Amino acid sequence: MVVSAILIYGDRGVIGLFTLLILIGLLFYDRVWIYSTYILSSIPGFWYAVTAYLYLLIAGLPINLYSIVMIYLRTTTYSLLVLFIGSIISPVELSNLIHKLKGGEKALSPTLLWRLTPLGLKYMYDSLSIGWLKGEPVKNRLAPAIAALLETGDRIEKSCYHRLKTPLNMPIYRDIDAKYTLILLVSPAILLLTLFLTHTSPYP
Amino acid sequence: MAEKLLRVEIEEAEYPDGFRLRNISFDLDPGEILLVTGRSGSGKTTLLKTIMQTIGLDGGYYKGRITLHGENIEDIPPQRIYREIAYIPQEPWYGIIGYTVWLEYCIGLNQSGKRCTLEHLRKYGLETIAKRTTYNLSAGEYQRLLWATTLDRDPGLLVIDEPFVYIDEEGRDTIYRMIEEYLENDGAIIVVDHEPSRWRRVKPKTLLLEDGIVKYYGGYREDIIHIEGISRVKINGLRKGRILIDMEGVEHRYPYSKKILKKIDMRVFGGEIVGITGRNGSGKTTLLKIIAGIIKPLRGRVRLYGKPIYVPEEPILYFTHPTPREELLSIGKPSIGVDGILKIFNIGGIMDRPIARLSTGERRRVALASALLRGYEVVLLDEPSGGLDNYSVEALKDLLLEISGRGDRCIVIATHDNRLSDVFTHKYVLEEGVLRRIY
Questions:
Q1: Which residues contact B349 (CB under 8 A, 6 or more apart)?
Q2: Which residue in A29, A110, A122, B173 has its CB near the most CB atoms, within 10 A?
Q3: B2 near A CB under 8 A
Q4: What is the ipTM of this complex?
């Protein structure tokens, strides 16, 4: 619903952007999330806005600063949207879907991926930090950090050898949190209402 | 005659690097426990991998016959092996595939055809961390989670490698009780442990290994297992040097969690070996990382008057180079002789072996040797005795005294291992975020 609203009312990039920021803030209730997702999604927004500006400048075409700002806002909104969708994907639901599709032990893959990615990144971070303590350049440290990440996967595969070949017997029990469901229902409703009101207003 | 639960007849089991197990036979009935003990490198973990049929994943092979309920284990599909045998590895974080505590528990039970409820986790003291992600659990919390999942799956046989390395005293008592209950309910256990005396009260059958062969197999006997001839370390005569660590009012919390460290004050001087103990998840590792400068504290200040190094509980993260030789030679011109260090740390024979093929204990010794050669003044060690037998722990203590003995370096150790206590010049306990000095 959020996606379609933003696509339909794309001109009002500010509304989409702030809605997403509020949603992320409500769902993850931490400033770190808001800052980090906004900064990350601003990178492509900033890039597209600057390149459009430079293109117009070099080509000698008239520059409309409003359009440049809109390029930034819309690109940032779409990037934020991708991050948002990524953050609300449930690996448990993916596993249950694969299980229902008779995927056998492959149903464990989403949860295993969600387990390995942060663990591997944490090990990479620790490895790079120790490299920093040892006074080694980051470029020298990347290979061992990646080796540590690969070994993590390898050791989990060996330690859980039989388990990873054992399929689920039933869908995984979902610990549904009513709070998230409520936020995801109420927020888009408010968004749609806001868009509807602003769309019918006499202002451009 | 009824079939044994497990019958093991191994003629030989070998790795590509030449290590070999020979002529190992034993059997196990429901309700029995087999304790496998011996020095580091005697083949205990290899034996478990052979039983679990995973030796081949490391390029090894075995000759012989292993049967489960009379059926050749090679013919049993992995799904059935998972349901009937639970394996708890020495490094517990490698035994987890769920990304939250709750999910890991539920998936494990699900694969065994059982349903999970939050009530069950309460029994193991895990309900408060049920929604936490598993990547930032402490080693002890990993262990407790594995135990909870394993015991509630109710397999007929538990195969456990060094189960108490990362568990605090309170957690150990809980697990002992569960093990006794499990045995009373006709469960069987094969356990590898460097500290056999812990198992005395369950009267295990005992298998003593030495260099891949059986030195003793029979009932529990103190005289066979008692380790003699270990030199006791002396900490008298240590020189106290200048101040190296000065912490004041350090506080920290992770996102989405309560404060893990509250107003920590600590001063450490050269020549001191400081031990920090505390329950699983109490923040010991975080404290070490804050001292090292890897984590910035929320409040307070840490002043270091020397170069720090942090050796994590998973020592592979320490290394930059693929072999010990390259790692140690990368230092350039060390201030002390390399030959002497190789002898002290007993790593001469593994200098050209890839670090990926070294055991955790060997990796830890190489990391310590490197830290000593590099001349760090503040050495921070996270669970340094994990996976080490009593002999190796005594050797480690000698090494720690060697590092700190000159008075210009200090060592801070986060550990649950009481075997290290006699080298601590000061001991602290971290409880509810507060660091309290014991002595």
A1: none
A2: A110
A3: no
A4: 0.82
Average pLDDT of every residue of chain B: 85
Alpha carbon of residue B203 to chain centroid: 24
Dist. CA B426–CA B70, nearest whole Å = 55
Portion of chain B with pLDDT greater than 90, in percent: 41
The identity of residue B268, as a single letter, is V
Identify the CATH number of the domain in which residue B421 sits: 3.40.50.300
Amino acid, single-letter form, for residue B356: A
Q: Name the amino acid, one letter, at A188.
A: P
Q: Please, what sign has the CA dihedral across residues A155, A158, A160, A163? A: positive
Q: Is the pTM of this model over 0.90?
A: no
Nearest CA in chain B to A170: B110
Judge whether residue A168 has pLDDT over 90.
yes
Q: Which of A115, A134, A163 is facing B111, going by the closest CB pair?
A: A163
My answer on whether B23 and B116 are in the same domain is: yes
Provide, as residue numbers in chain A, all residues whose Cβ is less than 8 Å from the Cβ of B304.
Answer: none
| Domain assignment of residue B116, yes or no | yes
Q: How many whole angstroms separate alpha carbon B132 and alpha carbon B43?
A: 36
CA distance A47 to A65: 15
Which residue among A134, A160, A170 places its CB closest to the CB of B110? Answer: A170
Q: How many domains in chain B?
A: 2
Residue B238 lies in a domain: no
> Can you give the residue range of the structural domain that contains B362?
243-437
Is B20 in the same domain as B167?
yes
Select the residue of A118, A119, A141 nearest B320 (Cβ to Cβ): A141
Q: Alpha-carbon Rg of chain B, whole angstroms?
A: 22
Are residues B334 and B205 located together in one domain of the fold? no
- Amino acid making up residue B383: E
| Neighboring chain B residues of A152 at a CB cutoff of 8 Å | 94
**If pLDDT is split at 50, 70 and 90, which confidence band does A202 have?**
very low
